[in-house]
Amino acid sequence: MIAALPWAHVPSYLTSTMPITVRFCETDLMGIVHHANYLIYCEAGRVDWLHRRGVRYDEWARRGIHLPVVETRLRYRKAARFDEELVVATTSVEVTRVTVRFGYLITRGVERICEGETLLACVGHDLAPKRFPADIADTLRAAEVAATAGGSSG
Amino acid sequence: MIAALPWAHVPSYLTSTMPITVRFCETDLMGIVHHANYLIYCEAGRVDWLHRRGVRYDEWARRGIHLPVVETRLRYRKAARFDEELVVATTSVEVTRVTVRFGYLITRGVERICEGETLLACVGHDLAPKRFPADIADTLRAAEVAATAGGSSG
Amino acid sequence: MIAALPWAHVPSYLTSTMPITVRFCETDLMGIVHHANYLIYCEAGRVDWLHRRGVRYDEWARRGIHLPVVETRLRYRKAARFDEELVVATTSVEVTRVTVRFGYLITRGVERICEGETLLACVGHDLAPKRFPADIADTLRAAEVAATAGGSSG
Amino acid sequence: MIAALPWAHVPSYLTSTMPITVRFCETDLMGIVHHANYLIYCEAGRVDWLHRRGVRYDEWARRGIHLPVVETRLRYRKAARFDEELVVATTSVEVTRVTVRFGYLITRGVERICEGETLLACVGHDLAPKRFPADIADTLRAAEVAATAGGSSG
After folding, report:
1. For B15-27, how does the pLDDT look when each residue is reduced to its tens digit (9 = 90+)?
2. B50 in helix, strand or coil?
3. Residue D153 above 60 pLDDT?
4. Which of the two ends of chain C, N or C, has the fewest CB atoms closer than 10 A to its terminal CB?
5. Is A40's CB within 8 Å of B23's CB?
6. Residue C38 contacts by C-beta under 8 Å, 6 or more apart in sequence?
7. CA-CA distance, A142 to A128, in Å (whole number)?
8. Can C28 be counted among the known catalytic residues?
C-alpha cells in the first residue's frame, strides 16, 4: 500500500495536470528515465500550473520577481521509459510570505512513477529574498483561470 | 533574403510538424535557448514524424533495428527564449540502403529560428551497419497515416 | 549559523572529494546553475567515490548489479555560476542489505552551495530489488584504495 | 582510411586539448553517449581553449562581448560509453572580423570518436553582430599562455 501524499488535504483546485512524453535523450544506459530529469518534469508542471492561472514568467521577471528553487525532494517509485506518456500533477501546497511549496505526482496511467516537493523562494534581481507582492501570493493560492488558453505541453 | 532549404524539392507529404514549448532548463545565462537543445528538438520532431507513420521505437528495437545519429548540421538564425512556442518541421530528405537523412526547420511564427539536417544509420544491436528492411525503408518514404493517434507532445 | 550535516558523525574515510567546473550549458536564464544539475554533480561525485575504492561501473553491471536512485533530497544554499570551481564531497552515510545512502556537500571555497542525500537501491537487470553481495557491501563501507589511479574528473 | 581534418593546415599552437570523462547521465538507452552531448564536450573544450589563453568568460561579458554559436557540424565516427576518458582537441580554425570557427577532434586513445566545427559570432548584449575588438581577435589567434593555471576539467 502506498501512503497518501503529504499534501492530500489541499483543495483540489490547487492542482493542475499536464502530459509529458519521455524524450529519447532523457533515458540513460539502464534504459530508463535518468532521475535528474524528473526535476525537469516538475519544473514543466510548475510553469504550466502558473500558465493556467494567467501568469507568464516574463511578467514576473520584469517586476523583479524570481523564484529560484531552494529545496527539492523526490521519491522514485517506478521506472519510466522512452516515449511513455506521463502526467505531472502539480499542487501548490503552502505559501508563506517569502516561499511557496509545490507538490508533484507523476503518473503513468494508474501507476505512481515519482512524487516530490520543491520549495521556491521569492527573490529580486540580486537574488536577495523579498516578500511576495500580494497579487502574486494570491495567484499562488488560486484556481485555474476559467478560459485558460490550454496549458502548453512539453 | 534567406535561401531556400536544401530539401525544398521534397514532396510535402514527407514533412510533419510538431509544437515544442521551450523549457526553463533549456535556456542558458545569455537568456536564450542553449544551442545543444536544438538537437533535442530535432530528435523530438523525428520521433513524432515516425509516430505519425505508425512507428513506435520499441518495435524497431525489438527487431534489432537502431538508428544512431552519424552526422548533424545546424544553422542558428535567431535566438529563442523560455516559454516560447516553436514548431519543428521534420522532413525525410533521402533514404539510402543504410542511411536516412532528415531535414528540420524550427520556426517561431513566421520567423526561422534554426534549420539543419541529421544523417542516421541503420545498425543492429551490435552497432554494426545493416541494410534497412524493405518495410522500414518504405515507412521512411511514407506519408502520415490517415488516422494518426495525434502527435505526441513534448 | 548553518546546521551540522546529518552525516557529520560518519568517519571521514567514508568521504571523498572531487572538483567540478560549472559548464556553460549548466546555467539558466537567471545566470546561475540550474537546480537539476546538482543531481548530476552528485552523481559525478558518487561515481568518483566508487572509483577511488576500486570499483568500475561496468564490472558491477556485468554481475547484474545496478544501483538506481530511489530518493533524492537537495538543499540549495547559494547560487553557483558559469566557470566556477566547485568541490563535491561525497559520503557513504548508511548501507543496509539492499540500499545505500550517500550524502553530498558541494562547496565553493569555504561557502556551502548545496547539500543533499540520495538513496540508491540494489537491483538486478530486471530492476527487481536484490541483496548486496557481501564484497559490494564491504566496498560501500570502505576507505579509498591507497594507490588510487587518481579520481577521474568531470 | 579516415580523411585528414579540414583544419589540418592550421599551426599546432592553435590547438589545445582537455580530458573529459563521460558522465552517466550523458548516456542514452542505446548504452552510448547521446549525440547532443558532443556539443557540450566541444563547448567545454572551447572554454578551456580560451582559459589557456588567459581569457575568462565574464571579462568579455562585462565588455559586452558574447559569442553565440551560429553553426555547428558534427560527424560521429564511433560510440563512446559511460566512464570512458575522452580527449577534446579544440582548434581555432579561422577568425574573421565578426566570427570565429573552431574545429574539434574528440578521441578515445587513438580512436576518433567525433569531429566537427562550430562557427561563433561576436555580438553585443543586444545580440546584434559587432566587430571583434583587436585584442580579442588577437587572442583567438594566439598560442597558450606559458604559465597557464592548468585548464579546468569537466
Report:
1. 999 999 999 999 9
2. helix
3. no
4. N
5. yes
6. C74, C76, C106, C114, C116
7. 26
8. yes
The mean pLDDT value for A13-22 works out to: 98
As annotated, the active-site residues of D are 28
Condensed to tens digits (0 to 9), the pLDDT of residues D3-40 reads 789 999 999 999 999 999 999 999 999 999 999 999 99
Q: What is the pTM of this model?
A: 0.94
Q: Which residues of A are the active-site residues?
A: 28
* The C-alpha cell that represents B149 in the structure block: 493517434
For residue D137, the surrounding DSSP H or E stretch is helix D134-139
What's the confidence (pLDDT) of residue B151?
45
Distance CA A120, CA C78 (A): 13
The neighbouring-strand residues paired with C59 are none
Mutate to test the interface with C, among A47, A65, A74 (most CBs of C within 10 A): A74
Per-residue model confidence (pLDDT) at position A150 = 47
CA-nearest residue to D45 within chain C is C23
Joined grid coordinates for residue A69:
528553487
- Quote the CA–CA distance of B4 and B42 in Å, as a whole number: 19
* Cβ-based interface (< 8 Å): residues of A facing C: 30, 32, 35-37, 39-40, 43, 66, 68-76, 79, 127
Q: Which residues of A touch D28 (CB under 8 A)?
A: 24-25, 27-29
Residue C7 makes CB contacts below 8 A (sequence gap 6+) with C91, C93, C103, C117
Interchain contact, C76 vs A66, CB within 8 Å: no
Q: What does the block give as the cell for B106?
A: 524550427
Q: Quote the CA–CA distance of A136 and B132 in Å, as a whole number.
A: 56
pLDDT at A131 over 90: yes
**Cell numbers for A55:** 501568469
| Residue B16 bridge partners (DSSP) | B90
Burial D2-23 (b: 16+ CB within 10 A, else e): eeebebeeeeeebbbbbebbbb
Residues of C in Cβ contact (< 8 Å) with A36: 36-37, 39-40, 43
For residue C81, the chain B residue with the least C-alpha distance is B29
The x, y and z cell numbers of residue B103, run together, are: 531535414
